[in-house]
Specification:
The complex is a heterodimer. By secondary structure, chain A is mainly beta. Chain A has no helices and 12 strands. In chain A, strands 2, 5, 6, 10, 11 and 12 form a 6-stranded mixed β-sheet that branches. In chain A, strands 3-9-8-7 form a 4-stranded antiparallel β-sheet, with no helix packed on it. Chain B starts with a strand and ends with a strand. Helices cover about 0% and strands about 55% of the residues of chain B. Chain B has no helices and 11 strands. Classes of the chains: A mainly beta, B mainly beta. At the A-B interface, strand 6 and strand 11 of A face strand 4, strand 5 and strand 9 of B.
Chain lengths: ~120, ~110
């Protein structure tokens, strides 16, 4: 069955420090992978996506993610975190076959806190 | 602003009641998706519509139903409400039902069942 695992429920980093949020997926076909961010009281905003090609993808707000097929991972990174990055981050895999095309399967999320 | 609107923002009701959540997709989007976000289950796909037709069902209870109207807005109906139905309900829309098309999420409707 398809699934997404985000092993870290909550991460705290200092402002200016680097960040890596982990995501592992289980999917039988070529995965379509996404990272979304949810600020308090807000909907989800797409940070970046991977479909094929270059395994390092750039997104908005200075985020990037690297797809590693051998590790079934799609980790999100940012070289220098800003206080405004405090939010909850969701990794997702998009269904790309059959009647379920387009549906997203989400991980449980990682809440990021930023220390001044 | 994603362009997806959801009403109401907040809804407080009692067990056993029925409520309707409304979603208007972005202009030009034909696909609508409903998701439920709860503390214990996380974000779960409920149901998908494309151009008025139901396309896929996820973990949607039989007490829940939805439809997409000719003007493409969608409604999620929740009946015989239980305490466990308290959650944030998101609607998302995309041009077509393909993972290549970005899903734009609305701000959500927070449902509290007392």
């Amino acid at each position: 069955a398809q699934s997404v695992t985000q092993p870290d429920i909550h991460i705290t980093v200092s402002e200016g420090a680097s960040l890596e949020l982990r995501c592992n997926y289980s999917y039988g076909a070529t995965p379509y992978l996404f990272w979304y961010v949810q600020s308090p009281g807000q909907g989800l905003q797409l940070l970046l996506k991977y479909f094929s090609g270059d395994t390092l993808v750039q997104g908005i707000k200075g985020f990037e993610a690297e797809f590693k097929r051998s590790q079934s991972s799609f980790n999100l990174r940012k070289p220098s975190v800003h206080w405004s990055d405090a939010a909850e981050y969701f990794c997702a895999v998009g269904m790309n076959y059959g009647g379920s095309q387009g549906n997203l399967i989400f991980g449980k999320g990682t809440k990021l806190s930023v220390k001044p | 602003d994603s362009g997806v609107t959801q009403t109401p923002k907040h809804l407080i009701t009692a067990t056993g009641q029925r409520v309707t959540l409304r979603c208007s997709p972005r202009s030009g989007d034909l696909s609508v998706y409903w998701y439920q976000q709860s503390l214990d289950q996380g974000l779960q796909f409920l149901i998908q519509y494309y151009n008025g037709e139901e396309r896929a069902k996820g973990n949607i209870l039989e007490r829940f139903s939805a439809q997409q109207f000719p003007d493409l807005h969608s409604e999620l109906n929740l009946s015989s409400l239980e305490l466990g139905d308290s959650a944030l309900y998101f609607c998302a829309s995309s041009v077509e039902p393909s993972p290549r098309n970005e899903q734009f999420f609305g701000p959500g409707t927070r449902l509290t069942v007392l």
